[in-house]
Design brief:
mainly alpha, 70% helix, globular, binds fe (ii) ion
Length: 231
């Protein structure tokens, strides 16, 4: 019997105005919010490709629900950005995800970890930080409406990783870890210096290095690699 994931969602009052922060140029604000939008598009593309892989057959119901969730999230951010008047290009880390570099060539487990733990985990962090920095009540409502879905998706990634570890070899576990680490460092290094300072703060190299050490701890705790294997 398929599990149900229905839940109450925070309502969004679209009659409200968008209120960009006064301390930030409007263009930089559009660039910042656009990253949430591109993150949703990247996640949706990954979920669609995961849904076609055999390893996750028993989780296809979850992935189908998630595809509906991500489609809804894209629409919410698109609608918000429409109010701002434009959508900016994705920053390098998200461009990498959009171009399929988050897809592992071995078992689907690698892609699940990349998408559900790294990409979605970062999405949640950025949502939280924007909520702290930006005064726009409409954006906060949009984020509050989306956050419970994303937390559920990250939990799915963790559960699937733990459940799938027995089905792969030690070599593949370590290879997935190395791939994730290189992917993360590549994204950090590709950060251009002329991106708006706000984005550099949330997605810049220093931040990404610090964030990698947190992801590393989680991956060790969940059993993808031991401390010794990660070294
Ligand atoms: Fe999403
Ligand atoms: Fe998600």
């Amino acid at each position: 019997m398929p599990r149900r994931y229905k839940q109450e969602r925070t309502p969004i009052d679209w009659a409200q105005q968008v209120t960009p922060p006064r301390w930030l140029p409007r263009r930089a604000y559009i660039t910042a919010v656009s990253q949430l939008y591109h993150g949703e598009i990247a996640t949706l593309a990954m979920c669609r490709s995961l849904n076609e892989t055999a390893i996750v057959t028993e989780d296809q119901h979850f992935l189908q629900t998630q595809i509906a969730d991500e489609t809804r999230h894209i629409e919410l951010y698109r609608r918000y950005l429409e109010r701002l008047g434009d959508i900016a290009a994705p920053e390098p880390a998200l461009a990498a995800a959009l171009h399929g570099r988050f897809e592992w060539q071995g078992s689907a487990l690698g892609t699940i970890v990349a998408v559900h733990l790294l990409l979605e985990g970062e999405g949640l962090r950025v949502q939280r930080e924007y909520g702290h920095w930006f005064p726009c009540s409409l954006l906060r409502q949009v984020n509050a409406n989306i956050t419970p879905d994303e937390a559920r998706h990250v939990a799915f990634g963790r559960r699937t990783l733990v459940g799938g570890l027995n089905g792969i070899t030690q070599d593949e576990r370590i290879a997935i870890y190395r791939w994730l680490e290189n992917l993360w460092r590549d994204c950090a290094q590709s950060m251009s210096q002329d991106i708006p300072s706000l984005i550099r703060l949330t997605m810049g190299q220093r931040w990404m290095n610090e964030r990698w050490s947190r992801h590393r701890k989680v991956l060790i705790r969940l059993g993808l690699v031991s401390e010794a294997e990660a070294a």
